Amino acid sequence: MSTWTVDRAATTLLACEDERTDREPITDQWPDLDLRTAYEIQDETLRRRLARGEHLVGVKLGLTSRAKQERMNISSPLVAWLTDAMVLPAGAPVPGARLIHPRVEPEIVFLMRERLAGPGVTAAQALAAVDRVYAGAEVIDSRYRDFRFTLPDVVADNASSGAFLVGAVGLRPEQLDLTLEAVLVEVDGRVVDSATGAAVQGNPAEALALAANDLARRGLAIEPGQLVLTGGMTDAVPAPAGARIAFHFSSLGSIHLSGGA
Ligand code: OOG
Ligand code: MG
Predict the structure, then answer these.
(1) H or E stretch at 255
(2) What tens digit of pLDDT does each residue of 10-27 get?
Protein backbone atom coordinates (compact mmCIF):
# COMPACT_ATOMS: atom_id res chain seq x y z
CA MET A 1 0.00 0.00 0.00
CA SER A 2 1.18 3.49 -0.84
CA THR A 3 1.92 5.90 2.01
CA TRP A 4 1.10 8.81 -0.27
CA THR A 5 -1.87 11.05 0.46
CA VAL A 6 -3.33 14.16 -1.18
CA ASP A 7 -1.80 16.19 1.63
CA ARG A 8 1.66 14.72 1.28
CA ALA A 9 1.66 15.13 -2.51
CA ALA A 10 0.59 18.78 -2.23
CA THR A 11 3.30 19.46 0.36
CA THR A 12 5.93 17.71 -1.76
CA LEU A 13 5.11 19.54 -5.00
CA LEU A 14 4.89 22.99 -3.39
CA ALA A 15 8.20 22.37 -1.60
CA CYS A 16 9.85 21.51 -4.93
CA GLU A 17 8.50 24.78 -6.31
CA ASP A 18 9.65 26.85 -3.31
CA GLU A 19 13.05 25.18 -3.10
CA ARG A 20 13.54 25.02 -6.87
CA THR A 21 14.29 21.31 -6.90
CA ASP A 22 12.96 18.71 -9.29
CA ARG A 23 12.01 15.13 -8.46
CA GLU A 24 10.82 11.83 -9.87
CA PRO A 25 7.16 11.58 -10.90
CA ILE A 26 4.87 10.87 -7.94
CA THR A 27 3.42 7.90 -9.83
CA ASP A 28 6.84 6.19 -9.59
CA GLN A 29 5.97 5.69 -5.91
CA TRP A 30 2.17 5.99 -6.14
CA PRO A 31 1.31 4.03 -9.28
CA ASP A 32 -2.39 3.90 -8.37
CA LEU A 33 -2.75 7.68 -8.37
CA ASP A 34 -5.89 8.27 -10.43
CA LEU A 35 -7.06 11.40 -12.21
CA ARG A 36 -9.69 12.29 -9.63
CA THR A 37 -7.19 12.17 -6.80
CA ALA A 38 -4.67 14.08 -8.92
CA TYR A 39 -7.19 16.92 -9.28
CA GLU A 40 -7.73 16.81 -5.49
CA ILE A 41 -3.98 17.37 -5.11
CA GLN A 42 -4.13 20.24 -7.61
CA ASP A 43 -7.05 21.81 -5.71
CA GLU A 44 -5.21 21.39 -2.41
CA THR A 45 -2.15 23.20 -3.81
CA LEU A 46 -4.49 26.01 -4.95
CA ARG A 47 -6.00 26.23 -1.44
CA ARG A 48 -2.51 26.59 -0.01
CA ARG A 49 -1.52 29.24 -2.57
CA LEU A 50 -4.64 31.24 -1.65
CA ALA A 51 -3.99 30.74 2.07
CA ARG A 52 -0.57 32.37 1.65
CA GLY A 53 -2.16 35.42 0.05
CA GLU A 54 -2.27 34.67 -3.67
CA HIS A 55 -5.43 35.42 -5.63
CA LEU A 56 -7.04 33.22 -8.25
CA VAL A 57 -6.95 34.97 -11.63
CA GLY A 58 -7.96 32.23 -14.02
CA VAL A 59 -7.59 28.84 -15.56
CA LYS A 60 -5.02 27.27 -17.86
CA LEU A 61 -5.47 24.38 -20.23
CA GLY A 62 -2.62 22.03 -21.00
CA LEU A 63 -1.90 19.61 -23.79
CA THR A 64 -4.58 20.94 -26.12
CA SER A 65 -2.45 20.85 -29.29
CA ARG A 66 -0.93 17.88 -31.06
CA ALA A 67 2.51 19.54 -30.81
CA LYS A 68 2.27 19.54 -27.02
CA GLN A 69 0.63 16.12 -26.77
CA GLU A 70 3.30 14.49 -28.91
CA ARG A 71 6.15 16.15 -27.03
CA MET A 72 4.79 15.04 -23.64
CA ASN A 73 3.45 11.73 -24.93
CA ILE A 74 0.06 12.36 -23.30
CA SER A 75 -3.01 12.59 -25.52
CA SER A 76 -5.48 14.10 -23.07
CA PRO A 77 -5.93 17.81 -22.29
CA LEU A 78 -6.08 18.99 -18.68
CA VAL A 79 -6.98 22.09 -16.69
CA ALA A 80 -5.15 23.89 -13.89
CA TRP A 81 -5.14 27.16 -11.95
CA LEU A 82 -3.56 30.58 -12.44
CA THR A 83 -2.86 32.96 -9.55
CA ASP A 84 -1.60 36.54 -9.48
CA ALA A 85 1.79 35.31 -8.26
CA MET A 86 2.30 33.80 -11.73
CA VAL A 87 1.72 37.06 -13.61
CA LEU A 88 4.86 38.27 -15.35
CA PRO A 89 4.94 42.05 -15.83
CA ALA A 90 5.39 43.16 -19.44
CA GLY A 91 9.07 43.61 -20.20
CA ALA A 92 10.24 41.50 -17.25
CA PRO A 93 12.62 38.64 -18.08
CA VAL A 94 11.67 35.00 -17.56
CA PRO A 95 12.19 34.62 -13.78
CA GLY A 96 14.91 32.02 -14.19
CA ALA A 97 16.19 32.53 -10.65
CA ARG A 98 13.01 31.14 -9.11
CA LEU A 99 12.32 28.43 -11.69
CA ILE A 100 13.83 24.99 -12.29
CA HIS A 101 13.95 24.59 -16.08
CA PRO A 102 11.63 27.14 -17.69
CA ARG A 103 10.27 26.70 -21.20
CA VAL A 104 8.10 29.23 -23.01
CA GLU A 105 5.10 28.63 -25.28
CA PRO A 106 2.67 30.83 -27.25
CA GLU A 107 -1.00 30.68 -26.32
CA ILE A 108 -4.29 32.33 -27.19
CA VAL A 109 -5.85 33.87 -24.07
CA PHE A 110 -9.46 34.72 -23.31
CA LEU A 111 -10.63 37.34 -20.84
CA MET A 112 -14.10 36.31 -19.69
CA ARG A 113 -17.08 38.66 -19.58
CA GLU A 114 -19.65 36.16 -18.35
CA ARG A 115 -19.68 33.12 -16.12
CA LEU A 116 -19.21 29.90 -18.03
CA ALA A 117 -20.49 26.77 -16.33
CA GLY A 118 -20.72 23.29 -17.83
CA PRO A 119 -21.67 20.63 -18.52
CA GLY A 120 -22.71 20.78 -22.15
CA VAL A 121 -21.05 24.09 -23.04
CA THR A 122 -20.44 24.40 -26.82
CA ALA A 123 -17.65 26.38 -28.49
CA ALA A 124 -20.19 28.98 -29.67
CA GLN A 125 -21.59 29.40 -26.15
CA ALA A 126 -18.06 29.61 -24.78
CA LEU A 127 -17.09 32.34 -27.23
CA ALA A 128 -20.25 34.31 -26.42
CA ALA A 129 -19.02 34.56 -22.80
CA VAL A 130 -15.66 36.06 -23.85
CA ASP A 131 -14.88 39.74 -23.48
CA ARG A 132 -11.50 39.97 -25.25
CA VAL A 133 -8.92 37.76 -26.92
CA TYR A 134 -5.19 38.30 -26.30
CA ALA A 135 -1.88 36.79 -27.29
CA GLY A 136 -0.18 35.10 -24.38
CA ALA A 137 3.13 33.57 -23.40
CA GLU A 138 3.28 30.88 -20.77
CA VAL A 139 6.47 29.99 -18.91
CA ILE A 140 6.06 26.34 -17.91
CA ASP A 141 8.25 24.75 -15.26
CA SER A 142 7.59 21.16 -14.27
CA ARG A 143 8.53 20.00 -10.80
CA TYR A 144 9.44 16.67 -12.41
CA ARG A 145 12.95 15.99 -13.63
CA ASP A 146 13.32 16.36 -17.40
CA PHE A 147 9.56 17.03 -17.70
CA ARG A 148 8.96 13.29 -17.32
CA PHE A 149 5.43 12.65 -16.06
CA THR A 150 2.15 10.83 -16.60
CA LEU A 151 -1.24 12.58 -16.87
CA PRO A 152 -2.03 12.26 -13.11
CA ASP A 153 1.46 13.57 -12.25
CA VAL A 154 1.10 16.70 -14.36
CA VAL A 155 -2.47 17.31 -13.16
CA ALA A 156 -1.24 17.18 -9.55
CA ASP A 157 1.59 19.56 -10.46
CA ASN A 158 -0.87 22.26 -11.63
CA ALA A 159 0.08 21.54 -15.26
CA SER A 160 3.69 22.74 -14.85
CA SER A 161 2.53 26.27 -13.99
CA GLY A 162 5.27 28.86 -13.68
CA ALA A 163 4.50 32.31 -15.02
CA PHE A 164 2.55 33.90 -17.84
CA LEU A 165 2.01 37.18 -19.54
CA VAL A 166 -0.71 38.59 -21.72
CA GLY A 167 -0.10 40.79 -24.76
CA ALA A 168 -1.18 44.39 -25.16
CA VAL A 169 -3.70 43.93 -28.01
CA GLY A 170 -7.18 42.85 -26.89
CA LEU A 171 -9.67 42.09 -29.66
CA ARG A 172 -13.34 41.23 -29.46
CA PRO A 173 -13.85 37.60 -30.55
CA GLU A 174 -15.66 38.70 -33.73
CA GLN A 175 -12.68 40.82 -34.79
CA LEU A 176 -10.51 37.83 -35.68
CA ASP A 177 -10.69 34.29 -36.98
CA LEU A 178 -9.36 32.25 -34.06
CA THR A 179 -8.60 29.23 -36.23
CA LEU A 180 -6.49 31.29 -38.64
CA GLU A 181 -4.72 33.42 -36.03
CA ALA A 182 -1.07 32.60 -36.64
CA VAL A 183 2.00 32.73 -34.46
CA LEU A 184 5.68 32.69 -35.39
CA VAL A 185 8.06 31.56 -32.66
CA GLU A 186 11.36 33.43 -32.92
CA VAL A 187 14.45 32.57 -30.87
CA ASP A 188 17.51 34.80 -31.13
CA GLY A 189 16.23 36.24 -34.39
CA ARG A 190 15.42 32.91 -36.07
CA VAL A 191 11.91 31.60 -36.67
CA VAL A 192 11.95 28.11 -35.16
CA ASP A 193 8.27 27.17 -35.18
CA SER A 194 4.80 28.35 -36.20
CA ALA A 195 1.16 27.39 -35.79
CA THR A 196 -2.35 28.73 -36.11
CA GLY A 197 -5.20 28.72 -33.60
CA ALA A 198 -6.61 25.61 -35.25
CA ALA A 199 -3.76 23.69 -33.60
CA VAL A 200 -5.61 24.13 -30.30
CA GLN A 201 -8.47 21.61 -30.34
CA GLY A 202 -9.42 22.73 -33.87
CA ASN A 203 -10.38 26.11 -32.38
CA PRO A 204 -9.32 27.72 -29.08
CA ALA A 205 -13.05 28.24 -28.36
CA GLU A 206 -13.33 24.43 -28.20
CA ALA A 207 -10.59 24.42 -25.57
CA LEU A 208 -12.51 27.04 -23.59
CA ALA A 209 -15.66 24.91 -23.74
CA LEU A 210 -13.62 21.89 -22.70
CA ALA A 211 -12.30 23.76 -19.66
CA ALA A 212 -15.81 24.76 -18.56
CA ASN A 213 -17.12 21.23 -19.03
CA ASP A 214 -14.17 19.69 -17.23
CA LEU A 215 -14.43 22.08 -14.27
CA ALA A 216 -18.15 21.28 -14.01
CA ARG A 217 -17.24 17.73 -13.00
CA ARG A 218 -15.74 19.28 -9.85
CA GLY A 219 -18.70 21.64 -9.42
CA LEU A 220 -16.62 24.61 -10.59
CA ALA A 221 -17.04 27.25 -13.30
CA ILE A 222 -15.07 29.93 -15.14
CA GLU A 223 -15.92 33.30 -13.61
CA PRO A 224 -16.29 36.80 -15.13
CA GLY A 225 -12.97 38.66 -15.23
CA GLN A 226 -10.92 35.47 -15.23
CA LEU A 227 -8.26 34.73 -17.83
CA VAL A 228 -8.15 31.42 -19.67
CA LEU A 229 -4.89 30.26 -21.25
CA THR A 230 -6.00 27.83 -23.94
CA GLY A 231 -2.75 25.84 -24.20
CA GLY A 232 0.53 25.95 -26.07
CA MET A 233 0.00 26.22 -29.83
CA THR A 234 3.51 24.88 -30.52
CA ASP A 235 6.07 22.94 -28.54
CA ALA A 236 7.65 25.10 -25.82
CA VAL A 237 11.16 26.51 -26.30
CA PRO A 238 13.81 26.63 -23.55
CA ALA A 239 14.47 30.05 -22.02
CA PRO A 240 18.11 30.09 -20.86
CA ALA A 241 19.62 33.31 -19.51
CA GLY A 242 20.18 35.74 -22.34
CA ALA A 243 17.88 34.07 -24.88
CA ARG A 244 15.66 36.46 -26.84
CA ILE A 245 12.27 34.94 -27.54
CA ALA A 246 9.45 36.56 -29.52
CA PHE A 247 5.97 35.33 -30.39
CA HIS A 248 4.62 37.22 -33.38
CA PHE A 249 0.85 36.82 -33.75
CA SER A 250 -0.92 37.80 -36.98
CA SER A 251 -3.55 40.08 -35.41
CA LEU A 252 -2.84 39.98 -31.67
CA GLY A 253 0.60 41.65 -31.78
CA SER A 254 3.98 40.43 -30.59
CA ILE A 255 5.24 39.35 -27.18
CA HIS A 256 8.96 39.67 -26.43
CA LEU A 257 10.65 37.78 -23.63
CA SER A 258 14.25 37.45 -22.56
CA GLY A 259 15.70 34.59 -20.58
CA GLY A 260 16.72 35.81 -17.14
CA ALA A 261 19.29 34.38 -14.75
C1 OOG B 1 2.45 20.50 -19.23
C2 OOG B 1 1.80 21.85 -19.30
C3 OOG B 1 1.08 22.01 -20.57
C4 OOG B 1 0.23 23.56 -22.28
O5 OOG B 1 -0.03 24.70 -22.65
O6 OOG B 1 0.10 22.58 -23.00
C7 OOG B 1 0.72 23.39 -20.92
C8 OOG B 1 3.85 20.59 -19.77
O9 OOG B 1 4.01 20.70 -20.98
O10 OOG B 1 4.78 20.52 -18.94
O11 OOG B 1 0.82 24.38 -20.20
MG1 MG C 1 0.66 26.22 -21.41
Answers:
(1) strand 254-258
(2) 999 999 999 999 999 999
The CA distance from 222 to 216, in Å, is: 9
Ligand nearest to the CA of 67: 1
User: Which protein residue's CA is at the shortest distance from atom 7 of ligand 1?
Assistant: 62
Distance CA 26, CA 35 (A): 13
The per-residue pLDDT for range 159-195, each reduced to its tens digit, is: 999 999 999 999 999 999 999 999 999 999 999 999 9
Question: What residues are in contact with ligand 1 under a 6 Å CB criterion?
Answer: 60, 62-63, 68, 72, 105, 138, 140, 142, 147, 154, 159-160, 231-232
Burial (CB < 10 A; 0-12, 13-18, 19+), residue 69, is: middle
- Name residues whose C-beta falls within 8 Å of residue 29's C-beta, 6 or more positions apart in sequence: 2, 4
Which listed ligand is nearest to 68 at the C-alpha? 1
Q: Which ligand 1 atom sits nearest the alpha carbon of residue 142?
A: 10
Rounded CA gap, 57 and 228, in Å?
A: 9
Res 1: pLDDT: 58
| pTM metric for this prediction | 0.98
